[in-house]
Design a protein that fits this description.
The chain has 131 residues and is of the alpha+beta class. The chain has one domain: Beta-lactamase Inhibitory Protein, Chain:B, domain 1 (2-Layer Sandwich), CATH 3.30.1450. The chain is built from 4 helices and 6 strands. The protein has a 4-stranded antiparallel beta sheet with strand order 1-2-5-6. The chain starts with a helix and ends in a 5-residue tail after the last helix.
Length: 131
């Protein structure tokens, strides 16, 4: 009886230490131009989705992450997860993927936004005034 209890306790401990899906590893198989169905087939159903339109294009973002373990507790929080992936689709095709909280990617996006803003301001002021 004691052996059964010890084996059961060890099984619970080992199950608690087991990790979930390795999204970073699965993301290594992503390719530009994949469809949403292909990505979901590879990565599974996303935990979070968002959509917007930009310049007439439909821009969607699907996100996956694994819970972070703190002791025996799994904390299911995207920002705390060491294994998170976001995939960006434009008109249903993959155009970008990676860690949405990566400082390098955030800096790149901020620079792109500033360049776009400056170009639109320059275009607005370079057009002749109409009366």
């Amino acid at each position: 009886m004691r052996q059964v209890f010890i084996i059961a306790a060890m099984a619970v401990i080992l199950a608690g230490c087991a990790s979930g899906t390795n999204y970073s590893g699965q993301a290594m198989s992503l390719q530009m131009g994949m469809s949403k169905a292909q990505v979901v087939s590879l990565m599974g159903q996303p935990k979070k989705t968002s959509a917007r339109t930009h310049d007439g294009d439909l821009v969607e973002r699907y996100s996956w992450w694994s819970p972070k373990r703190i002791g025996f507790t799994a904390v299911d929080n995207e920002m705390m997860s060491p294994d998170r992936i976001a995939v960006k689709f434009v008109n249903g095709k993959v155009t970008e993927w990676g860690d949405s909280y990566d400082p390098g990617a955030m800096t790149d996006r901020a620079i792109e936004m500033q360049v776009d803003m400056l170009e639109s301001i320059q275009k607005a002021y370079s057009q002749p005034a109409t009366e």
